[in-house]
Amino acid sequence: MFRPVKILFSLGIFIFLNLNYTNAQVTQSISATGHVFAEIIPVFSAGENSQLNFGRFSPGPQGGKIILTPQSTLSVQGSIILGTGSHNAGSFYVTGDNNASYSISLPSEPVFIKHNASERSMVLEDWNSWPPPGNGTGLLQNGFQVVNVGATLKIGTIADNPVGVYTGFYTITFGFN
Amino acid sequence: MKKIVKFLAIATVMLGFSSGIFAQTTASASASAVIIAPLSITQSANLHFGVIWRGTTAGVVTVTPANARSSTGGVTLSGLSPANTAAEFTITGEPTKAITITLPTTDVTITDGTNNMIVNNFQSTPAAGTYTLTGASTTLNVGADLNVGANQPSGTYTGTFNVSVNYN
């Protein structure tokens, strides 16, 4: 008489376990953690404050060179005679993150500026700047910096470079890493 | 008298499980339990929004599960390294079994330690919801929106999010 009771009791346990297993299956949830990254960099801008201006001068009989430093100091070679009027180095205003460094690249090829009434031209070469050109030479203290640019202007004789206004443009590149 | 009491007790138990007597017959058939492979999910690639030029107005950067990146508002996408990547997860489980994929439905905050940004609108391929496993391993790609504030301070922002799977 005891044996049937034992069998039925075992069956009851089986049903219970089976229900429990079903519930466990439904609630099984596996998670994985994903990682998110983003890198924000500042708006980096540069604009021309003032144009590179060699002022007024006369070539003289042989012509020569005018050297304009980034500090706006002017010196001449050859028969150049400086006239009255202002001159100044090129000036750029660079903005970005506080204390960010950047690179400065100046024209590597000669730049021609052209006479306003003819095809005559003069050549700008030996570009220089302050801060000097190179990687990481610029530093944005308080988020900005003024970069001054100078160059050497080669001038021919009065026949090569008649009286008038000579203009042109050049490209300076500021690189942000 | 003791013997009679025992008998009555047994009879009561038998009545209580009277239907179980018949179930015992079918129970032997259902003893063939179905064994299925356990579900697992692991991350194999990070969600990276890449390098972004901040703006003076807020903007949104979206990386799709196919790793297409776009922006709206006052931000500009930069081609500088590191490049953007959609997140990638590997799901393993029993082929032909249906599972549910769950992505974050609330905002996830990422931080550079001081400043925060919000990541939301998570999307995936295959999409969140019910999905039937086709093989032993399934690749899940996840993208989302990154909300960049106006003048968002520059820096590298990091955070985490959870993706869950379970058998239906």
Please tag this protein with its features.
heterodimer; A: 177 residues; mainly beta; Immunoglobulin-like; eight-stranded antiparallel β-sheet; three-stranded antiparallel β-sheet; 14 strands; 46% strand; elongated; disordered N terminus; B: 168 residues; 2 domains; seven-stranded antiparallel β-sheet; 2 helices; 12 strands
How would you describe what is shown here?
- The complex is a heterodimer of chains A (177) and B (168).
- With 177 residues, chain A is mainly β.
- Chain A has one domain: Sandwich (Immunoglobulin-like), CATH 2.60.40.
- Chain A has 1 helix and 14 strands; from the N terminus they run αββββββββββββββ.
- In chain A, strands 2, 4, 5, 7, 9, 10, 12 and 13 form an 8-stranded antiparallel beta sheet that branches.
- The model of chain A is unreliable at 1-26 (pLDDT under 50).
- Chain B is elongated.
- Chain B has helices spanning 2-16, 18-27, and strands at 40-45, 47-53, 59-63, 69-73, 76-77, 87-92, 98-102, 108-111, 116-125, 129-132, 137-148, 155-167.
- The model of chain B is unreliable at 1-25 (pLDDT under 50).
- Chain B is mainly beta.
- In chain B, a hairpin with a 5-residue loop joins strand 3 and strand 4 (69-73).
- At the A-B interface, helix 1 and strand 1 of A face helix 1, helix 2, strand 1, strand 2 and strand 11 of B.
Count every beta strand of chain A, where a strand is a DSSP E run of 2 or more residues: 14
State the major sheet of chain B.
7 strands, antiparallel
State the low-pLDDT regions of chain A, or none.
Answer: 1-26
Q: Which CATH architecture of the largest domain in chain B is right?
A: Sandwich
Helix-residue proportion of chain A: 10-25%
Helix-strand sequence of chain A: HEEEEEEEEEEEEEE
